[in-house]
């Protein structure tokens, strides 16, 4: 084992693999270790036998579900915004050459007991059955304002400083009703709850613009893309990037104990009786449990089905957002469906996920509003996991710990955490703005 590294990365979750790749490209000497014998950590994709082993305690799934190896079931299911931060990181690092992506067929929202396609532009607003005639006109005006808004063009601001005006104030200026506010805030701006209403309107406008830009990047019916063969491909892509730039990988390493010097600073990792020295540690919360705190739980159901989600235009891949108010919760619920069209299941099979920030210890009860929308399911697995955030000061102990994955079904918060960690580790800003115009090239 080479004895001295700039950074040792523990865990091969997506966040850790992106950082490993970025740091290696930046010229740092990186050793990447994992206690597991596979890539992906919490964000891996499992075949059917692995899924059965994890949730049913045996490795004998029923034969009628098809071949195990044809399944790639994500443990942290998320789509990618076509013009979002993760796509920009993929383009910035050229990891796109290791992966193939396909657009997601549909984006939908649950409103008053029904599922509707999400209108994302002024033209779609006029066609939508989600709103009455007068409301469509008001919504169209608001969409045009958002589409035309330009930071550098004061004329487009209509006299409003979006850093001072709240989202609630700008929405009321257009006289939009509650249901319209609901789908704009949750299905377009993708806020996980209603707390955004009292925050600066700029954040909501930028999120809506990202949605519209992502939708325009592809000729699909949604702003989302997703890799063929599941999300487990992403950590492996970044691992290859790191290896190409000199990173060293060691899987199946037991223990991985972080060592500290007399000043409380991380100085190495011991595994199998050998110690590798380093200046900094990057890891997921499971490697340094005494330096993180629990901040919540995610409840999730994984369903294998033989049909697409009902009321989604027979979409082979789709997202449905259930805004909190529509189902009487404190945060949103997300339905996410993929199928054989993205090579994550055998022909004729669909994998659906229902996720939410848990409010109790009863996932079967909490997730019922979403599961009820799926129709008959062949198999269902319930899962709950704790969410952690670091409480250490990385300046004091040289430990950089990622936050756990949230319930949202896109990667914007994931990449925000990665970029923040990268800046703290290197002292450099990761500028992805130059990659925006190239984002549509990621369609592969």
Automatic annotation (TrEMBL):
InterPro entries given in the database record: FAD/NAD-bd_sf, GDP_dissociation_inhibitor, RabGDI
GO biological process, one term: vesicle-mediated transport
Pfam family, one: GDI
Family: Belongs to the Rab GDI family.
Function: Regulates the GDP/GTP exchange reaction of most RAB proteins by inhibiting the dissociation of GDP from them, and the subsequent binding of GTP.
PANTHER family registered for this protein in UniProt: GUANOSINE NUCLEOTIDE DIPHOSPHATE DISSOCIATION INHIBITOR, RAB GDP-DISSOCIATION INHIBITOR
Stated name of the protein: Guanosine nucleotide diphosphate dissociation inhibitor
Organism listed in the record: Spirodela intermedia (Intermediate duckweed)
């Amino acid at each position: 084992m080479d004895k001295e590294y700039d950074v040792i990365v523990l865990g091969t979750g997506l966040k850790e693999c992106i950082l490993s790749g970025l740091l290696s490209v930046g010229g740092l000497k990186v050793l990447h270790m994992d206690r597991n014998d596979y890539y992906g950590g919490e964000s891996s994709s499992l075949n059917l036998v692995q899924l059965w082993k994890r949730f049913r305690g045996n490795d004998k799934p029923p034969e009628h579900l098809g071949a195990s190896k044809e399944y790639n079931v994500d443990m942290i299911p998320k789509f990618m915004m076509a013009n979002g931060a993760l796509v920009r990181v993929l383009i910035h690092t050229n990891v796109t050459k290791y992966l193939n992506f396909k657009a997601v067929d549909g984006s939908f929202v649950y409103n008053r007991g029904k599922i509707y396609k999400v209108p994302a532009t002024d033209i779609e607003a006029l066609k939508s059955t989600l709103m009455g005639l007068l409301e469509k006109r008001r919504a169209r005006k608001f969409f045009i304002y958002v589409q035309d808004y330009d930071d550098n063009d004061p004329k487009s601001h209509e006299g409003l400083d979006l850093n001072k005006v709240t989202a609630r104030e700008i929405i009321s200026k257009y006289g939009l009703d509650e249901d319209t506010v609901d789908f704009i805030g949750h299905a377009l701006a993708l806020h996980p709850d209603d707390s955004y209403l009292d925050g600066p309107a700029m954040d909501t406008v930028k999120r809506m613009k990202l949605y519209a830009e992502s939708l325009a990047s592809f000729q699909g019916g949604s702003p989302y893309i997703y890799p063929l063969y599941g999300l487990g491909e992403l950590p492996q892509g970044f691992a290859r990037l790191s290896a190409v730039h000199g990173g060293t990988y060691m899987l199946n390493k037991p223990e991985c104990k972080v060592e500290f010097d007399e000043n409380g600073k991380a100085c190495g990792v011991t595994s199998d009786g050998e110690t590798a020295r380093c200046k900094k540690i990057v890891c997921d919360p499971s490697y340094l449990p005494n330096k993180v705190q629990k901040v919540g739980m995610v409840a999730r159901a994984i369903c294998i089905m033989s049909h697409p989600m009902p009321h989604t235009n027979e979409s082979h891949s789709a997202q449905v957002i259930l805004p909190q108010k529509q189902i009487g919760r404190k945060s949103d619920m997300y339905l996410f469906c993929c199928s054989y069209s993205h090579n994550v299941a055998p022909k004729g099979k669909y994998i659906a996920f229902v996720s939410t920030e848990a409010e109790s210890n009863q996932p079967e009860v909490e997730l019922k509003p979403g599961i009820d929308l799926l129709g008959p399911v062949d198999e269902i697995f319930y899962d709950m996991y704790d969410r952690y955030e670091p409480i250490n000061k990385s300046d004091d102990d040289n430990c950089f710990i990622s936050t756990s994955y949230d319930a949202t079904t896109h990667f914007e918060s994931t990449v925000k955490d990665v970029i923040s960690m990268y800046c703290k580790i290197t002292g450099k800003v990761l500028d992805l703005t130059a990659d925006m115009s190239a984002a549509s090239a990621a369609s592969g």
